[in-house]
């Protein structure tokens, strides 16, 4: 082992904020289904607290021994609409409260899976779950919710798109004392993945095994620092540099995931190769793009820079671990990234550019504060646009916007912690109401004649 | 179990003596040592064998960190795999 390599690893962790963003335990709740809601909830609580009993303790021990921070320990569960659908309950908030209680008992940071998959149509369970979302998010602390409204195979469920615009508004309304925090825990997906360890969109898909451990890595700071050393050089060099550094970052994820799964006696699922920023200085994806030569993220060239980054991260990471999954790519949340916040504040980054960026990176319009008086139909139309990008391009896209009640463009919304703060961004003021009012489904796209 | 110990700080009399004395006390065997002055900083790395160690990893980590404070340097101990997995295939 060379001194230089040891020091490089230590520097990456200490100065460049390399960390394991999350170890997420996926737990199937299919065996907790019961016709009686109270019984089902008791089974859910028991199963989660049993399976994840040692999750936090193990994560902390590994973090201590290897000297790498593991920021979050989380749990994802089977979409609750499938589990609660067997009961006669009309409102599923009690299920969210059970998940919240289990999260508190186990000490995890978040539990995801208050979810419904309605890309083609609703079951009665889906319908009840979606109606329960605002209350569920307003009365719990750690529960995250997601709804999948479209897929490349089935098209876009525009009835669900229409409904979700209203649900987002209602959630903002019910959590307005916390600056609409409920909306930060609600994601609307197209092509949702079943093994994503990142919140708020994590759920444990039905194709997964009973209990599995997934890992999400991070490290935008490390990539930025590596690129500082190749200033002015051609993109071939940029791409190679990112690949090498992504390899190293991913190896950490593989090591930690493998170690945690051995200690917990749970199979190791996937490593999610994502560059997830935090509001901390030196932990920004926007700054990587700016390091490539853009004066500010959001200017012309941003989409190309992001496309290169996203692709190189995947290429470098794929060989570094046994199984890749989740969302894998670069995240571009606004409130969680100091560089993005700054770009919005100086008027260099707008919603339209962010939408274009989502066509080439993981997920979508993420952690964006919009004026509180934005009509529900406009939010639905944003969801429809994102879903269309995902469905046509065969990728995951998502919307997580926060209507900032009582605030307008230029004001700021503070969430604190990893969620950061967001300047309220302008939205197009022309109405989409008649478009959204149509409802129905947008058919699945044709997979030939790609242009 | 092998671990890597790194000691970084301002050069002074007795750092190596202090660190190795503490390791002996903890029943930790030193397999390899490299030491240099980098940009004016005392930088030492040790590969350690922890098989004979009696205390837990967490306790060792803490008592070494305390020793570091006493010597005016930063002492870290991490399991070897984090370095090998990052830098070798």
Can you describe this structure?
The complex is a heterodimer of chains A (451) and B (89). Chain A is an alpha/beta fold and 451 residues long. Chain A has 16 helices and 15 strands. Chain A has helices spanning 3-14, 37-51, 55-66, 80-84, 93-106, 124-138, 158-174, 181-184, 220-228, 235-264, 285-291, 302-318, 338-345, 351-357, 376-393, 433-437, and strands spanning 20-27, 70-77, 110-117, 143-151, 155-157, 186-190, 211-217, 268-272, 274-275, 329-330, 365-371, 397-404, 412-414, 421-423, 441-442. In chain A, strands 1, 2, 3, 4, 5, 6, 7, 8, 11, 12 and 15 form an 11-stranded mixed sheet that branches. A two-stranded parallel ribbon of chain A has the order 9-10. Chain A has a two-stranded antiparallel sheet with strand order 13-14. In chain A, helix 3 (55-66) crosses helix 10, helix 9 runs parallel beside helix 11 and helix 10 (235-264) packs across helix 12. The longest helix of chain A has 30 residues, at 235-264. The model of chain A has no long low-confidence stretch (mean pLDDT 94). The longest helix of chain B is centred in the C-terminal third of the chain and has 15 residues, at 57-71. Chain B contains 3 helices and 4 strands. Chain B has 89 residues and is of the alpha+beta class. In chain B, helix 1 packs antiparallel against helix 2 (57-71). In chain B, strands 2-3-1-4 form a 4-stranded antiparallel sheet, sandwiched between helices. The interface between A and B is medium-sized, with 21 and 22 residues.
